[in-house]
Every structure is written in C-alpha cells, then in structure tokens.
Write a structure and sequence with these properties.
Pfam families: LysM. This is LysM domain-containing protein. InterPro entries: LysM. The chain is of the alpha+beta class. The protein has 2 domains: 186 residues, no CATH class; 106 residues, RlpA-like domain (Barwin-like endoglucanases, Beta Barrel), CATH 2.40.40. The chain is 27% helix and 24% strand. It has 9 helices and 11 strands. A hairpin with a 6-residue loop joins strand 1 and strand 2. The N and C termini lie far apart (53 Å).
C-alpha cells in the first residue's frame, strides 16, 4: 500500500509543478477537514491534516484520533498505523460493533517515528505533529518523560519563543513531523487493553496479597447491575470479607479483572447460582451483554 502511494505521488509530481501540487493537496485537505475525516479515500494522512497527540496516563503512549474518511476501512487504518486488527480493537473496543465514515479511531504514534525535521524538497511526504499539554504538565515533563528527549532543545527549535514559564494547559506545541506513507509494524508500541491498564493498581495489590495467602477458587454465574459508581471496580459477594479483593476471569473475553467487595448479594433478588454481582465498569471491561455470564473467581 505504501509503495503504491509513493508511485502515485511521484508520478503526479512529474506532471504538475510543486506549487500547483501543494495547492491541490491543501484544497483536498480543507474539504476533508470540513467533513470531519483524516486523509481521503486513497491516503490515510495528507500533509494538510492536523495530527495532535495526547499522552495516555495509563500506558504512557502518545495517542492520536483518526477520523475515517469515506471508503477508508478499519483494516486499512490498522495496516497504515502498523497494528493488527486485534490491537486496534484493544484500543477501540466499541468498534467491534461497527463503524461508519467519520468514526473516531484512536491509534498510538511511536515516539521513534516522529522526526525533528525533513528536507524542503520532501514537503509532500510529511505532516506536522503537535502535542496538546495536559493540566500540570511542564516543559521538563514533556521533553524528558512524555517524548523521551535528553533536553528541550528540539522543542524550543520547533517552537520559537517557547519557555517553561509560558506553557499552559491545553496549549498545542509542535513536536516534529510524521511521514504520510504509514508506520512500520516493527516500530509500533505494544498495545494493552485499556480496561486492564486501568485496573493495574488493583492487580498490583492482589499480587502482594497472594504472596502471603492462598486464595479460594469459585466458578459460577455473575450478574450485573446498573447501580453504583460507574468509575470504580466493585462487586457484591456472598462470603468474601467486605473491602477485600476478588479476581474475576471472564473466559469469553479472556480478560482478568480485579475488584473490591463492597456488599453482599441480596438473596431475594438473585438465586443461589449467582456467585458475583458486578458494577457497570466491569460490564464495560468484559464487554458482556447477557444479564448473567460465566466467570472463574478467586478470593480470600
């Protein structure tokens, strides 16, 4: 795919002067931005696109929201950004239900493919890459931790007049350039399920407990409720101590999530086959639709 793009652009540049070509690309990009898409039916990125990255607190990856243009497919987007389709689904679980033109597809952009500059005769091959600052983010944190640079010289060269004192949340700064012919899979980052990443603190607590105690195994049905805090990993359990942790493996999704016991299962609502009632966040993490589903659990 990338090779065909190169031939197409090269052939086009032979027949049209550079200024005309750049004007043509600009007009096409302007129209597609108004349609809320990235790239067009032939290219997933154009030099006129706006690539603004953000840092994911859980994984530390640099993320970009690509909006599918008409005739762009999810499979094509995965290949262009160097992912397998399964990796793309891990980053975008809701896309398993389908997508349409204009759908947002979140992808990771590896730091190693962001270049500090390019030769002027290669302007049609690169798109500028920018970064949106998070609240509390400093110039030191941006350069060293987020981008992995040894110092802030590259950022200051790309953003004349930028200082540590004039940064503010939401500010967009230029961090380099990205080639528009796709990302090599060998350069891509490892993708983990976002819910598993979010659940990592409880996983670490569980690991520290299992070093001292032997958990009890229970298999059976789990049910879910729409009540409770939608931002917390919580379950109702019949016997596990309140405040303790439960390990929950859902075989269909092949995910293991850890949650805190916050109450008892109401006997008058659920029959004896239900060994666990999970909160809405766990339902989202497992992607279940049935009111009851099979789980394997461990608790203390």
């Amino acid at each position: 795919m990338a090779h065909n793009r190169i031939l197409c652009i090269t052939a086009t540049m032979k027949f049209f002067p550079p200024k005309f070509l750049l004007s043509l690309i600009f007009c096409a990009g302007f129209l597609l931005q108004n349609l809320g898409a990235t790239g067009d039916s032939l290219y997933f990125l154009l030099p006129t696109d706006t690539v603004v990255l953000r840092s994911d607190p859980a994984s530390g990856h640099l993320l970009f929201d690509h909006y599918l243009a008409p005739k762009q497919t999810l499979y094509g987007a995965a290949r262009f950004y160097g992912f397998s389709l399964d990796d793309l689904y891990r980053l975008n679980p809701a896309l398993r239900k389908g997508y349409t033109p204009g759908t947002k597809v979140t992808v990771a952009i590896p730091r190693t493919v962001i270049r500090p500059s390019f030769s002027r005769d290669s302007v049609a091959w690169f798109v500028p890459v920018r970064y949106r600052l998070s609240p509390g983010e400093t110039l030191f944190g941006l350069t060293r931790r987020t981008l992995g640079h040894p110092d802030d010289s590259r950022i200051k060269a790309l953003n004349p007049g930028l200082t540590a004192e004039n940064l503010k949340p939401g500010q967009v700064v230029k961090i380099g350039y990205l080639r528009i012919d796709g990302i090599n899979p060998d350069a891509q980052v490892r993708v983990e399920d976002p819910y598993v990443l979010r659940n990592r603190p409880l996983h670490a607590r569980w690991d520290s407990l299992t070093a001292k105690k032997t958990p009890l195994f229970t298999n059976g049905k789990a049910a879910w409720t729409t009540r409770g805090d939608r931002s917390k990993w919580m379950v109702l359990h019949r016997t596990a101590p309140l405040g303790s942790l439960v390990e929950i493996e859902e075989p269909r999704s092949r995910k293991t999530i850890y949650a805190q016991v916050v109450g008892r299962i109401p006997e008058q609502v659920y029959d004896s086959r239900v060994i666990l009632v999970v909160s809405p966040l766990l339902v989202q993490a497992f992607g279940v639709r049935d009111k009851e589903f099979y789980v394997r659990t461990r608790h203390f």
